[in-house]
Amino acid sequence: MEALKPLKRAAEKERRRANRKALREKANAGLLSLEEQALVDSRKQLRQARRGARGLAEADMQGDWKGGVVVDLGFDDCMTDQEIISMTTQLGRLYSSNRTASRSVATVLHTSFSPNASPRLWEKMRKSNWEKWTRSSWWGLGLDELVKAFKDHPDHIQSDSFTPTDTKPSETDLMMNSSTALNTDRSAANGKGNPSDLIGDGTDTDLLLSNLSHPHLPSPFTSKYKLVYLSADSEEELTTLSEDEIYIIGGLVDRNRFKNICQDKADKLGIRTARLPIGTYLQNLPTRKVLTVNQVFEILVNYIATQSWKEAFEAVMPQRKFNVGKPRKYNKDDGEDGVGDDGDGDEVEQVGNIATADEIDEEAALNA
Prior knowledge:
The chain has 15 helices and six strands. It is an alpha/beta fold and 368 residues long. The chain folds into two domains: 2-59, no CATH class; 63-164 and 214-366, Alpha/beta knot (3-Layer(aba) Sandwich), CATH 3.40.1280. The longest helix is centred in the first third of the chain and has 28 residues, at 34-61. The two termini are 29 Å apart. The model is unreliable at 155-202 and 327-368 (pLDDT under 50). This is tRNA (guanine(9)-N1)-methyltransferase. Residues 1-22, 325-368 are annotated as: Disordered. One of its GO terms (biological process) is tRNA N1-guanine methylation.
């Protein structure tokens, strides 16, 4: 039955197209009935309303923060199945935070996202409607290819035509299954790809693959941008956010099993690292606070809105929740670590809460 769904959708689409054509011909000949004329008028009003809404959305995006955020999803094999579920929840909450922020981040790029690069996360994300998320781009390629784009091919970035180097042919073949799907056009990248344009097995996977934008980079990313990997283990403390920088968040839920994993990855790729100034602005935390991926992002967008780290941290981590000396009740949403290991209180680890994929803000994605 699943294999027949794309065929049924294509047949239904063709039927609607034929009906619209017949209606236009009758309208041109002046042969519309009252009911048909009412239908034509209502469709016209709907188109006008959509154009108006699109115009408002475009105007709203003009005020977006022009810097960028990358979520590095290249840790699929480091997480358990439960942690993968937690990551899908965190990505959904991150999107919702950006969609409702007083000043949204213009572009959030997710790297290493494909059936080949992150098979379990890809499967869990199927029901999240990620292909409809606004201000979001999805790359099947890894962070190393993004680094190459900025370091080795800066002139290619602005033209939106960067071609990754040293990519295994079999990798591309496995991910996209066709050259047509690999060279995704803008309509497909916006979730409007035509199933008949794809060469593949005609499954839902083909339709989702058409929404991966690699090897093209998001158009706002130009050669002026610099990459900064957010790491708790960095020696540099972040003092401000700059619109000519792209901040990388490690998309990892690991219960602190892998020490320095993001720092080591950044060092290997030659990416500058920096840590959030939690210890400077929240000095009274009794323990080392463990943050989820979406909480790190929420701190960033709150800082963008207020230009105050203290207000940004308070919005995400109210200090009233960390009363020294008061026993803390276990919360089922805390997962294994709760508040985290003992430490200085100024470190950030991307450790997620145990949750189900149903908690993702699917309604927000549908209304995007």
